[in-house]
Design a protein that fits this description.
CATH superfamily: NAD(P)-binding Rossmann-like Domain
Structural class: alpha/beta
Number of strands: 10
Distance between the termini: 25 Å
Largest sheet: 8 strands, mixed
């Protein structure tokens, strides 16, 4: 049984992505990074490329991605809008024409604290983009992931503390929309997805990890935040629910836990855990004001399975048919 307990990796909240990958070679590895052209995704792509891997970046804005990645070697870009199922299918169709395996899948892309937006199916945009799109993408790549005995990294956040899954109304069709509740739900979903994905994948060597990268204020993830909320993020009085000050990380520090989970030999035969600061995080109670640590609702196996069933219903397919 996997336990959600720190392993004392020797790395810390100030460790950088380049530090945690020291001595690790990725020559011949094929890695997908969604949103790997901006913010911590770009740093992730650069570090993995420098270690010798071939990187496929899924990007909604191809022009922006080409410009950002112009000087990064061994990178290909495929258009990907995670909020739209058709785009996810088109991405995987194009990927599978060139590659028959995937060694590491990094579900990195995401949006935060948007106004109420819906995709073409009417699903709330944060849930659709941050969770359902990655759920479908991972399902589409299941054969390729199993062939490589891959690691799957799901970018969650300490924002999961804002909300568990609203199973009765995940798309805010009934209840009033609140952007931080919606964001928290999507980040809890990222963590629960890793829990159940690891459960069904470990027999085939596919292991999954949820990652909180840290508080990084220098990316465009905060583009939907008000000036007051941005001031909060840099230390002013809070308008964000349950706000507790914590270390503001650089982008290089923010990518470190992703890189550690994706490549570290310390995590061999482990999975289904929530990680931050380059270690497995401790559990904190759901109502705790503490920033660090993972709430029980984000790692609960029963809730993970319930979310899985809901996700299959919303995505319109049964994952079990992909296991054979």
């Amino acid at each position: 049984m996997i336990t959600q307990q720190p392993i004392h990796s020797g790395f810390y909240d100030t460790s950088t992505a380049s530090q945690v990958i020291t001595g690790i070679a990725l020559n011949g590895k094929i890695i997908i990074v969604t949103g790997g052209h901006s913010g911590i995704g770009l740093e992730t792509t650069k570090i993995l490329s420098e270690a010798g891997a071939t990187i496929i970046v899924g990007a909604r804005d191809i022009g922006k991605a080409r410009q950002a990645l112009a000087e990064v070697k061994n990178v290909s870009i495929i258009e990907l809008d995670l909020s739209e199922p058709v785009s996810v299918n088109e991405f995987t169709n194009r990927y599978c024409k060139s590659f028959d395996s995937c060694d590491i899948l990094i579900n990195n892309a995401g949006i935060m604290a948007t106004p109420l937006l819906r995709n073409s199916l009417g699903y709330e945009m944060q849930f659709a983009t941050n969770h359902l799109g990655h759920f479908q993408l991972t399902a589409n790549l299941w054969k390729e992931l199993r062939k490589s005995r891959a690691r799957v990294i799901c970018l969650s956040s300490f924002g999961h503390r804002f909300s568990g899954i609203q199973f009765d109304d995940p798309n805010f069709n009934i209840h009033p929309y609140e952007k931080w509740t919606a964001y928290g739900q999507s980040k809890t979903a990222n963590s629960l997805f890793a829990v159940h994905l690891d459960k069904i994948g470990k027999e085939d060597g596919v292991r999954a990890f949820a990652v909180h990268p840290g508080r990084i204020t220098s990316t465009d993830l905060n583009r939907f935040m008000s000036d007051e909320e941005k001031a909060t993020a840099t230390g002013a009085a809070s308008t964000v629910p349950n706000y507790v000050p914590s270390l503001i990380k650089s982008i290089a520090q923010g990518a470190a836990t992703t890189i550690w989970c994706a490549t570290s030999p310390q995590l061999e035969n482990l999975g289904g855990v929530y990680c931050a600061d380059c270690d497995i995080s401790p559990i904190v109670e759901n109502d705790s004001p503490q920033v660090n640590g993972v709430r029980r609702w984000a790692i609960n196996p029963a809730m993970a399975e319930q979310l899985w069933t809901l996700s299959e219903k919303l995505a319109g397919f049964e994952w079990t048919k992909l296991l054979h």
